[in-house]
Amino acid sequence: MVQQEFDLLVVGSGPGGQHAALTAAKLGKKVGVVERKPYLGGVSLQTGTIPSKALREAAFLASRFTAQGMRAAFYPRRAEGGGFLAEAIQRKDSVVANKESALLNQLLRHGVSIIPGEASFEDAHTLSVAAPSGKRERCRAAVIVLAAGSRPRRPQHIPFDKERVLDSTSILNMRRLPKSLLVVGGGVIACELATVFAPLGVEVTLIDSHQQVLAYLDGDIADSLVDHMLDMNIRLHMQTRVGAVERRGDRVHAHTEGGEHFQADCLLYAMGRQPNYEGLAIDQAGLAADDNGWVRIDAHGRTPVSHIYIIGDLAGAPALASTAMEQGRLAAYHAFGEGRAASPAPLPMAVYTIPELSYVGETERQLRERGADYVVGRAGYADAARGQIIGDYRGMLKLLCDRAQGRLMGVHIIGEGASELIHIGQIAMGAGQNVEFLAGNVFNYPTLAECYKSAALDCLDQLRA
After folding, report:
1. Mean pLDDT of 55-82
2. Alpha-carbon separation of residue 346 from 50, 349, 423, 429 (angstroms)
3. Which of 312, 428, 270 is nearest to 13 (CA)?
4. HEC string for the chain
5. What is the pLDDT of residues 119-162, one digit of tens each?
6. How far does the chain reach from its first CA to its final CA, in angstroms?
7. In the structure, what pLDDT confidence band is assigned to residue 82 with cuts at 50, 70 and 90?
């Protein structure tokens, strides 16, 4: 059996694994990345973040939600044709391929070895890698980072077939738009894909056991999203639990525990994800998962076995590509004694629905629960010249600040560009700034960023009252 020695061995080539590998390589370490799939980039690049956002972009540009304001006369709908989805998927695949090529070049340029195959622990410092050819090689490392990602949860009683009963991976490879789609779930993936297909003329029905979709959102943002979904003719059946799913010919039938019956051309089951610990044999390294399937880690991602780190989706919430990147970087620095501080709070979050939304900091509900004295400043996109130009009349930016000093405590945005705009609020909050800082700044005109100034002035009016 061939044996290789490394300073750092990373299992998984997703965002977290990439950044751990590149950070260590730039520190002069010998680094290897084990990847069991025939491609690089992990879920984020290949079957999750990038493909779904590329498809969302196509849906957004082809839908009536783009054809507002000055765009109305110049963005005719193109989604009705049968080839729309096939073309969108082809372009999505091109984006993914280009990104994968760039990633491979970056890793090789920094001297990172790519080891194809499935890894499993022999002991705390040794991994056995089974290559696709059937050959095995033994890889030893001083430090090991587990970044093996996650996969859609696929209960055995759901008859997935990649054709009509779909998960969040297989739905991104459909070649024709269905006439109707059942979405089981009310989380991020369910809401994102529901609002991608509905604007394209697909009859979407969303079924979820919770009282509200994305219940952790600020109330105003959640209510606005629901209003948009209803305007898209998405049928929402909340507090409804699907018990059985079956395919009959070209139709999929869902039966609820309450006795209701739904049917559609296709069904998307989007009820969470599960970590990819299977096959790693972590017990051979002295690690064990808790009752919920997670391994205990500290703020640096370090496990009870001090030279083994866990990052990304394997580490649990928030399971975002952005946080995985930072976790990978910090794990590598910590492992080799660089002593970099952990990322400062707060971290931004985005949901790429149509319209997209983003937030950083606390919600009104959280502030009320801890008895905080706060004020709310609001600014509508419709009041900004840029909002009128692009035709986003319902977008909104909301600031939360404490009444005593005007310190920013939360920023919540729904509307075009929300995921980009949020970083202004993130940086201001991270620097400990107050709303007077935003109110006193000059923003380019006409831009949506002006909404920060308007919302900050709204806060100041209340603070001075």
Report:
1. 68
2. 24, 10, 11, 8
3. 312
4. CEEEEEEEEEECCCHHHHHHHHHHHHCCCCEEEEECCCCCCHHHHHCCHHHHHHHHHHHHHHCCCCCCHHHCCCCCCCCCCCCHHHHHHHHHHHHHHHHHHHHHHHHHHCCCEEEECEEEEEECCEEEEECCCCCEEEEEEEEEEECCCEEECCCCCCCCCCCCEECCCHHHHCCCCCCEEEEECCCHHHHHHHHHHHHHCCEEEEECCCCCCCCCCCHHHHHHHHHHHHHCCCEEECCCCEEEEEEECCEEEEEECCCCEEEECEEEECCCEEECCCCCCHHHHCCCCCCCCCCCCCCCCECCCCCEEECHHHHCCCCCHHHHHHHHHHHHHHHCCCCCCCCCCCCCEEECCCCCEEEEECCHHHHHHCCCCEEEEEEEHHHCHHHHHHCCCCCEEEEEEECCCCEEEEEEEECCCHHHHHHHHHHHHHCCCEHHHHHCCCCCCCCCCHHHHHHHHHHHHHHHC
5. 999 999 999 999 988 899 999 999 999 999 999 999 999 999 99
6. 76
7. low
* CB-count exposure of residue 99 (10 Å: 0-12, 13-18, 19+): middle
Q: What's the one-letter identity of residue 450? A: E
Task: Supply the pLDDT for residue 291.
Answer: 82
pLDDT, the chain, mean = 93
pLDDT per residue over 191-200, tens digit each?
999 999 999 9
Distance of CA 435 to the CA centre of its chain: 29
Count the residues in the chain: 465
Summarize pLDDT for 238-261 with one digit per residue, the tens.
999 999 999 999 999 999 999 999
Domains defined for the chain, CATH in brackets: 2-152+274-335 (3.50.50.60), 165-271 (3.50.50.60), 355-464 (3.30.390.30)
Does 341 score more than 70 pLDDT? no
User: Which of the two residues, 9 and 317, has the higher pLDDT score?
Assistant: 9
Average pLDDT over residues 203-211: 97
